[in-house]
Amino acid sequence: MADVAICFFSATGNGFYIAKEMKKYIQGDLLYIPKIIGKDLSEYKKIIIITPIYLFAIPNIVKRFINSIPKLSNDTKVYIVINYAGLVGNASYYIKSFCAKKGVNICAVYKVAMPLTYTLFAEELQLVVKRLIKTSPKRVKKVADKINANQQMKIRSNCFAFLSKLHDKTEWKWGSFAKEKFQVAASCDLCGYCKKICPAENIEIKGGKVHFKEQCISCLACYHRCPQKSINCGHKTIGRKRYVNPNVNLDEMYI
Ligand SMILES: Cc1cc2nc3c(=O)[nH]c(=O)nc-3n(C[C@H](O)[C@H](O)[C@H](O)COP(=O)(O)O)c2cc1C
Q1: pTM, two decimal places
Q2: In order of start, what are the domains of the chain with their CATH numbers?
Q3: What is the pLDDT of residues 72-98, one digit of tens each?
Q4: Which of 59, 214, 220, 226 has fewest C-beta within 10 Å?
């Protein structure tokens, strides 16, 4: 076991990519968050949590993970790395407060911009995607250097606090997101890949059909990664380009 836990959640590979890049500079165990909920991490001296931003806050599965962390020693250093696509609102302060309530004190929150995956309304420009992918290694290295230097940071609230509050206000709706919004096209060959990759175990295949349950976290893994592109959100997404980070093999994430 290494001294550092590099814990990450990722649906479409951006977070996994950041975690893998980070491992080049920080000797640590790569841990996929859905698999370590409730695990004892107290042996680690440093814990790095790499999380995407969902509606100016963090996904429920990351909250569940943080809630499940048993009491850590005061010497354990916890760092948050936000993986976002342009707008974080007051997410840094939101996370700091959320962690503090659970007795987890964080040293710093860093941000790494990556391509947008919430593309149900519109695709991100390919030029922007390519540029962000190309420049991401530099950004990750900068963050890794700061973590290696044990930097501390003052995390203050900002004027966008109202945006992050939106997250909490709408939280009750998130579980039924896929059930209400997604349609499965006739091209679905019931391969079961969506069920296998769903981090929330929200997908069942029965009676020759894909069923969404009520514990969706809106990560869009099924939407982006269905081999047949059979999962759609209304007519607009039919035929639309899907996104996965091109520099990772997502099937390695679960190992
Ligand atoms: C439901 C949902 C909500 C999102 N909300 C935000 C947001 O508020 N701000 C932002 O900058 N990016 C937002 N994003 C974009 C992701 O945080 C970003 O694309 C991230 O890189 C995805 O990481 P992954 O590939 O590891 O899953 C959202 C994505 C999803 C799926």
Answers
A1: 0.97
A2: 4-163 (3.40.50.360), 175-239 (3.30.70.20)
A3: 998 999 999 999 999 999 999 999 999
A4: 214
